[in-house]
Amino acid sequence: MAKLIPILVLVICAALGLTAGKFLRPPPPEPAEDVAEELDGEKPSEETKSAEEGADGTSPAMDYVKMNNQFVVPIVTDNRVSAMVVLSLSIEAPLGQEDEILRREPKLRDSFLRVLFTHANIGGFDGEFTSIEKLGGLKRALKEVAQRDIGTDLVNDVLIVEIARQDY
User: Fold this and answer.
1) Angle at 134 (CA atoms; ends 129, 139), nearest 5 degrees
2) Phi, psi (5° rounding) for residue 134?
3) Residue 141 domain flag
4) Residue 41 and residue 86 in one domain
5) Consecutive sets of 10 residues in the chain, 168 residues long: mean pLDDT of each?
6) pTM for the full model?
7) Are 81 and 131 within one domain?
8) Letter string b/e over residues 134-159, b meaning 16 or more CB atoms within 10 A of that residue's CB
């Protein structure tokens, strides 16, 4: 019976987490074509779409704010530093918001370091640390804390500009 209690607690916590995630999920964004139809009464042409979007599909009203210094994350194995990971990050933000983001950089750096250290402690920088799955999870976590700390209106995405690992 005593061995079942931790398993039951784990199952209950997982169920509660899934339920909370389902109810707290943001509503899906409205398709841009439907909004344009409602405003104009007609579908936007391909020329209008390409003028509104950049060549890579991103909005041209976005700016990229490079964090001033690199992030250095130690990889600890058997109570000693076995490697160092160095990252450069940038914030994709609406045009003209660079000063506001840089003003809040100390808070943002602290949150980013917490995410990076957690990622390192769970083995995120071990093995194929540049795989899409591992970097995708890290990017999502960085974006979530950035939006939580400085606002969803100021942070569109967090970009990993450079990443390197040095083993000792």
Assistant:
1) 115
2) -70, -45
3) yes
4) no
5) 80 82 71 50 47 50 89 90 92 90 92 93 87 88 93 90 90
6) 0.62
7) yes
8) bbeebbebbbebbbeebeeebbbbbb
